[in-house]
Amino acid sequence: HLDRGGDALRDAEEALKLGGSGFVKGHYRKANALMSLGRFADAAAAIALDLQSLLDHALVNQALLLEDLAK
User: Fold this and answer.
1) Top-confidence residue, 55 or 21
2) Counting Cβ atoms within 10 Å, is residue 3 exposed (0-12), middle (13-18) or buried (19+)?
3) Is the pLDDT of residue 59 over 90?
4) Which pTM value belongs to this model?
5) Distance CA 5, CA 22 (A)
6) How far apart are CA 34 and CA 41, in angstroms?
7) Is pLDDT above 90 for 28?
8) Which of 5, 35, 38, 50 is the most exposed place for a label (fewest CB within 10 A)?
9) DSSP structure class, residue 65
10) Average pLDDT in the 19-29 region?
11) For residues 33 and 14, is the Cβ–Cβ distance under 8 A?
């Protein structure tokens, strides 16, 4: 069971490298893998990064929309 958690964590970290920090699903998968390994504080941090990424993405999209509307 620990091997699968470790494999899942490595896969999630690789996905984050490829998809960037804005890859929400990667943060979610990383948090799940960390929870399966009993690393709950690290999982909470991964979810916090996920929420920050969502917020950053939404703010950028809103700024781009406002810029388009101002034209």
Assistant:
1) 55
2) exposed
3) no
4) 0.68
5) 23
6) 9
7) no
8) 38
9) H
10) 77
11) no
Which tokens belong to 29? 């998968």
Count the residues in the chain: 71
C-beta atoms surrounding 9 within 10 Å: 21
Locus of tokens 């388009």: 68
Q: Which amino acid is at 67?
A: E
Q: Is the pLDDT of residue 27 over 60?
A: yes
For helices 40-70 and 24-36, angle between their N-to-C axes, nearest 10 degrees? 170
Residue 8 DSSP label:
H
Distance (Å, rounded) from C-alpha 37 to C-alpha 21? Answer: 22
Burial status of residue 55 (CB atoms within 10 A of its CB: 0-12, 13-18, 19 or more):
exposed
